[in-house]
Write a structure and sequence with these properties.
The protein has helices at 4-21, 50-62, and strands spanning 22-30, 37-47, 67-71, 79-83. It is α+β, with helices and mostly antiparallel strands and 84 residues long. It is globular.
């Protein structure tokens, strides 16, 4: 991703993918000692097309967004991209 305009176009593509295929959720989580609870937002995209998941992961990585990919089993061959 070279120039700023191209970078923004890929971010718009990612936003459209999240809007159409993603799931946005808020999760309760605690600190390590369990003293403080907080809400943590997360985004998940699940689909069979691994190339799209990998492209979304690449966009996240290049823009400083924490993300990881989880591959499903042979009985459920979906790949999941988690962002938080």
């Amino acid at each position: 991703m070279g120039n700023q305009q191209e970078r923004m176009e890929w971010l718009y593509w990612l936003v459209g993918l999240i809007e159409g295929e993603g799931c946005i959720s808020l999760n309760w989580c605690s600190t390590r000692k369990g003293k403080r609870r907080m809400i943590r937002p997360s985004v998940k995209i699940a689909m069979v097309d691994l190339k799209i998941i990998e492209k979304a992961y690449e966009i996240c990585r290049e823009n400083g967004i924490g993300a990881f990919i989880h591959h499903g089993s042979s009985t459920a061959p979906t790949s999941n991209l988690f962002m938080n």
